[in-house]
Structures are given as C-alpha cells and as structure tokens.
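Internal ticket - ligand job 271, D-glutamic acid:
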Amino acid sequence: MGPIGVFDSGYGGLTILREIRRSLPGYDFMYLGDNARAPYGTRSFDVVYEFTLQAVKALFERGCRLVILACNTASAKALRTIQQRDLPSIDPSRRVLGVIVPTIEKLGEVSSNGNIGILATPGTVSSGTYDIEIAKFFPRFRTVSRACPMWVPLVENCEHDGPGADYFVEKYVNSLFEEEPEIDTLVLGCTHYPLLLPKIEKAVAGRAAIITQGRLVADSLADYLRRHPDMDADCSKEGTVTYLTTEHPDKFTGMASIFMEQPVSASRIEL
Ligand code: DGL
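stdout (structure tokens):
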C-alpha cells in the first residue's frame, strides 16, 4: 500500500503525525497542510467540507489508500459526509478516519465525575460533534464547550510562546471553569493546541486532567492497522514522510520543523 495520508488545515496535524511516527516508525506518510487557506475553524460547514474533500482526493491521487483527518474541524464538519457519500463513488476500498472518536473513547478511563470540558475551534464547537458523540459513548456525562478563536492564529503565527498568548489562554480556560467548576477532564479538541500546552496547564492549575490527541490517535491507528491487514504495509525499513503544503514551501518548513523537532522539506501543491 502507498503512504498513509495525514491532513490538516495547517500545522496542527503535525502534532498528530509526530506521535503516529513514534508508534509506527516503519510506515511511509504523506502530510498535507492547507496552510494557504487556514484557519478552517471560522469557516462554514460547506466550505470546510469542500476544502477537505479536495485534500482527500489530492492524497488519494498521490497513492494514499488511508487518510487521517488530523483536524477536529474537518473531522467534525466533513468526515461523515466523505465516508458515507463520497467514498463509495470515489473508491470504496479507500478509507478516511478522523480524530474525534479516538479522543472520546479515552474519556471513560480519565473522568471520575463525568464533567467534560471541551476547548476547540468555533467550527468544532458549533457543530456539536463532541457533545453528540460523547452522549453516544457515555450517556451520563455532561459537556461544556468553549470556542477559542484566537488560539489557532497564535500558533499559525508562531506566537504560542509569546506573552500575548497568556492573556487568551487564561481568558478561555477561566471562562470554561466559571461556567462549570466541576469539570474534571478537559479535552484539547484542536490539533494546534498542544503547542500551547505549557500555558494551558498553567491556567488550568490542576483543576482537571488535560487530554491531548496525538498519543490517542496513534494508538487507535495502530489498532486499526492490526484489524485491517489489507491496509497494512511492508514495515521492514525506516518509514519516510513527504510534506505537501498549499503555501510557499519555505514558509511551511520553518514552522513544520518546530512542530516535528527536526528539519523538514516540503513541496507546494494546488488543491
Ligand atoms: N487544527 C485544526 C483542528 O484540529 C483546526 C485549525 C483551524 O482552525 O484551521 O480543528
């Protein structure tokens, strides 16, 4: 089989790719960041769906048989339609998976009182996907969500370490706990947010366990590949990563190298 495709609106999916590579070092991956059109979090349902479908098709055309939407906004707004409506006509043997269900599956092990806080993009929050899916897995759990529209721009503009970020991190975290002080588990429902983790931990100050997605998605993918040998690959060699971006490659590689903690090179594609 070809490389495993990993898609995000920008750099955030690299936090997922990094963990997947640690778990599956023998696999080849193809990462696609739609950096020229990020962020997706404030875009309409139709536009996120249209952009995500274009990206999935581009990865399929380049040999991927399995694509991970390493973006909560795309998983919330486009995954189901692509799986149910588009895949049967494009190629029923190909697969597209998201990041929301692998995250939710973990909550039962972490939460004691069933009060779950969700921090995510405006698009993910307004879709209600986390609330709906959590209710299916854990009907007694209660969810409180807060959209964090400033967090992705802080990360995309490399300001996540800067002093300006503290203000916006505290603002959203504190407003969530003001609404529900009993939250014991906090989901970072956006793949960009792990870059803000030190500041989020400081703002949460031990009030809740914080769930990031990279490890959970990596474990879930490894399990999926064990259960679907038709999607499996020859893993006897060191795997490779091909990086694609819709932005200028020089702009992408600088930031991507920070996310991946190693130098990367990229090519530009049009969607
Ligand atoms: N990283 C994406 C997510 O997980 C979204 C970022 C964006 O707004 O484009 O939702």
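Auto-summary: The mean pLDDT is 95. The two ends are 23 Å apart (CA to CA).
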